[in-house]
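REQUEST FORM: STRUCTURE PREDICTION
Request ID: SP-0412
Submitted by: Lab K.M.
Chain count: 1
Length (residues): 129
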Amino acid sequence: MGKLQFNKTYFISFIILLLIEVAIALLLTSGFIRSTFGDFLVVILMYCFIKSIINAKPKYVAIGVLFFAYSVEFLQFFNLLEFLNLHNNAMTNIILGNTFQISDLVSYTLGIISILILEYKILPRDLKR
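STATUS: Completed
RESULT:
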C-alpha cells in the first residue's frame, strides 16, 4: 500500500489527459480515436490520477487500474446500466460505456503496458517520487 502524497507531475498529466478525453467525447462520434485510442488513454488517465495522490509502486497501481477497467468492461457484458435503469442516461453511458468489446480490453492492456514501459524504461527516476 502506498502513502498519500501529492505529485504535481502526475496531476498535470491527469488534467491534460482529462481534457483530451473530454474533447474526444464531445467532438468525435465514431472512429479509431473515439473507440480505441480513447480507451487506451483512459487507463493512463486513471493511473496518473491515482499516482498524483498516492505514492505507490507503478506495477501495483497499474494492476489495480487494469483490474478496474476490466471490471467495468465485464459489467457492460452483463448490461449493468440496463439492470440499474441507467441505460438512457447520457453521462453514465459516456463514463461507463454500454457495449462490451474485446478490443476495449486490448486497448486497456496496451495502455497499461505503455505506462509501465514509460515508468520503468523511459522516465527519469526523480519524476516518479
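NOTES: Strands lie at 3-4, 54-55.
Reviewed by: T.R.
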